[in-house]
Design a protein that fits this description.
Order of helices and strands: HHHHHHHHHHHHHHH
Shape: globular
CATH class: Mainly Alpha
Distance between the termini: 62 Å
Number of domains: 1
Oligomer: single chain
Number of helices: 15
Strand content: under 5%
Radius of gyration: 19 Å
Number of strands: 0
Largest sheet: none
CATH topology: Farnesyl Diphosphate Synthase
Length: about 290
C-alpha cells in the first residue's frame, strides 16, 4: 500500500495545504459562494449595500470554510465507500483518516454558528439550514444521502447561502418562487452528479435517488427538476426562467447523445459559473440603471 504523505514524519506544510485544497473541491467552491453573490445582488437596494463586512464575510465563509465543512464530513463518513469510487483517482482524493480533517470540520462548523452573532436575524434560519443539512446529509444517524429522494431534497442546502445573503441585505426573505426554483435546481444538480456514482454506490450497498431510478430515469428526473426550476424563476422574471432553460437542454444532450456522463459531470462547474454570472449581472444592471 502506498504510504500516506500526510502521516510521514517529514510531511511538509505544502503537503498539508495541497491535501486540504483538494479536499475542499476548488472546482465546486462557487456552488456555495456563487449563490451569495446572486443573493446580495438581488437583495441590495443600493450599490453601497453590495460590499459590507457582512456580505464580504458571507462570501469568504462560503467560498472555502463552508466547503471544508461540507466535503470534510462527506469524506469522513464515506471513507469505505470511496474505496470503490473512480472519481477519487483523479481530481479528488481519498480521505485516509488524517486527523486534521475532523478538526477542521469542527472549526468551520463553529465559525458558521459564530456568524449568527453578526448576521441580521432574517439570515439566521438559512445558516441553520445549511449547517444542519450539511451535517445530516453525510453523518449518521440521519445520513440523508443514503435515502432515495431525501438525498435529493436535502441538497437544497446549496440554496441556503444565497437566501442568507439576500435576507442579510434586504432584511426580508427571498421571493417564494425564487426559493422553489433554486431548490429544484439544486435537487437536479445533486442527482445528476450522482449518476457517475451509480455503480460504485450499488457495489457498496448505498441507496440513492440515482441508484433507485437508474441512469435513464435519473436523466428524466433531473430534467423535470430543472424544468420546474425554470418555471419558478420565470414567475419572478421571465428572463431568469429563460436562462435556466439551459439545464434541461443540457440534460437532453447528455441523455440523447454519446456524451459520457462522467465527462459531462465536469462541465457543470463552468456552466454554473456562467449562469450565476448572468444572473448576478442582470441584478446589478437593474440596481445601477433601474
Amino acid at each position: 500500500m502506498t504510504e500516506n504523505p500526510l502521516r510521514r514524519s517529514d510531511r511538509t506544510t505544502t503537503d498539508l495545504l495541497v491535501y486540504l485544497l483538494v479536499l475542499s473541491r476548488p472546482r465546486f467552491w462557487l456552488y456555495l459562494a456563487g449563490p451569495v453573490a446572486v443573493g446580495v445582488a438581488y437583495g441590495a437596494s443600493s450599490v453601497g449595500e453590495l460590499f459590507t463586512p457582512v456580505t464580504v464575510g458571507l462570501f469568504v465563509y462560503f467560498l472555502v470554510p463552508a466547503n471544508v465543512f461540507l466535503y470534510g464530513i462527506n469524506d469522513i463518513y464515506d471513507r469505505e465507500i470511496d474505496l470503490e469510487n473512480p472519481k477519487k483517482e483523479g481530481r479528488e482524493r481519498r480521505y485516509r483518516g488524517e486527523p486534521i480533517v475532523p478538526i477542521l470540520v469542527t472549526l468551520t462548523a463553529a465559525a458558521g454558528v459564530a456568524s449568527l452573532a453578526v448576521l441580521p436575524t432574517a439570515a439566521w434560519p438559512w445558516m441553520v439550514v445549511f449547517l444542519t443539512l450539511g451535517a445530516a446529509y453525510s453523518a449518521p444517524p440521519a445520513r440523508l444521502k443514503t435515502t432515495p429522494l431525501l438525498d435529493s431534497l436535502s441538497n437544497g442546502l446549496y440554496v441556503a447561502p444565497g437566501a442568507a445573503a439576500y435576507a442579510a441585505v434586504a432584511g426580508a426573505q427571498p421571493p417564494a418562487a425564487a426559493l422553489a426554483g433554486a431548490w429544484l435546481w439544486a435537487m437536479g444538480m445533486h442527482t445528476f452528479s450522482a449518476v457517475p456514482d451509480i455503480e460504485p454506490d450499488r457495489a457498496a450497498g448505498i441507496r440513492t435517488t440515482a441508484t433507485a431510478l437508474g441512469e435513464a430515469r435519473t436523466y428524466l428526473y433531473c430534467g423535470l427538476c430543472w424544468l420546474g426550476a425554470a418555471v419558478g424563476f420565470a414567475l419572478v422574471d421571465p428572463r431568469l426562467g429563460t436562462i435556466m432553460l439551459v439545464y434541461p437542454a443540457l440534460i437532453a444532450v447528455v441523455a440523447l447523445t454519446s456524451v459520457g456522463v462522467s465527462r459531462a459531470y465536469w462541465w457543470f462547474p463552468a456552466i454554473n459559473t456562467v449562469v450565476g454570472a448572468l444572473l448576478t449581472m442582470g441584478a446589478l444592471h437593474l440596481l445601477v440603471y433601474g
